[in-house]
Amino acid sequence: MSLRIAVISDVHGNAFALEAVLGEVSSESPDLILNLGDQVTGQADPGRAYEQQRSLTAVEVLGSAEPHLNQNDVLNSWLRSQLPFGAVEHLTRLPLSAKVAGGQVYACHGAPDDPSGHLMWSWQRGPYLARSAQELRSLVQPLHAGVVLCGHTHREGLTMIDDTLVVNVGAVGNQVDGDPRARWALLQQRKGRWSIAFRRVVYDWQAASDWVRAFGPNPEDEATYLMSGE
Asked: 164 — phi, psi (to 5°)?
């Protein structure tokens, strides 16, 4: 018996990237989809990105950006104008974490107890640094899971802590490594063993950048890094 779970994270309102990713996800026919949060905070057609994600009936967790949606700054005020009625309430009430596959798979956005925290990497007003095995073990062991999934840092990575596979799945939208392709991951269990396949998907980032420049309230930075991937 096998189990296939598609994992997306950090869409950040990029409907163009998400559309390409979901085309691949659909072709894989997963048993379940996990969405690790930061669904709409971005400017590349976030209303459409939200509707795409709602259509998935995915298991969802709270991102680091969702709690700020009710703030009255320029971006969040604009985001609320792009989203359908009830979207903000739905997004801000998502749980911090979720367990699926009979509790074998644990999903969170940043760290288990904090969507703005960091699991595989730590950050102290400087570059992201890989956690020591001892630090990571202290975070992972209490979860009693075979797989621990996170996002938030927009970078793919995996490691083993004892018998637990720890994975950062990367971001659908808004890359940080100079490669603008959208990211997602396919988690599979076969004969009791878990494996992860990272996927990178070409999409029309020129169209995404053009949409941001045409409609976004703060277009310059986002339009530029959608094209460059950093």
From this structure: -105, 125
Rounded (10°) angle between helices 205-215 and 15-28: 140
DSSP 57-72: T-EE---SSGGGTTS-
Rg (CA), the chain: 17
Residue 91 φ then ψ, to 5°:
-70, -40
Cα angle: 86, vertex 49, 222; to 5 degrees: 115
**pTM greater than the 0.70 cutoff:** yes
Distance CA(49)–CA(100), nearest Å, equals 24
Mean pLDDT by groups of 10 residues along the chain of 230 residues: 93 98 97 98 98 97 98 97 98 98 97 94 77 94 98 95 96 96 97 95 98 97 95
- pLDDT attached to residue 125: 63
CA distance 127 to 117: 14
Asked if residues 201 and 20 have their Cβ atoms less than 8 Å apart, the reply is: yes
Is the separation of the CB atoms in 7 and 31 below 8 Å?
no
| Alpha-carbon span 76 to 66, nearest angstrom | 10
Q: Which residue has the tokens 């890989």?
A: 130
Closest by Cα among 217, 99, 109 to 171: 109
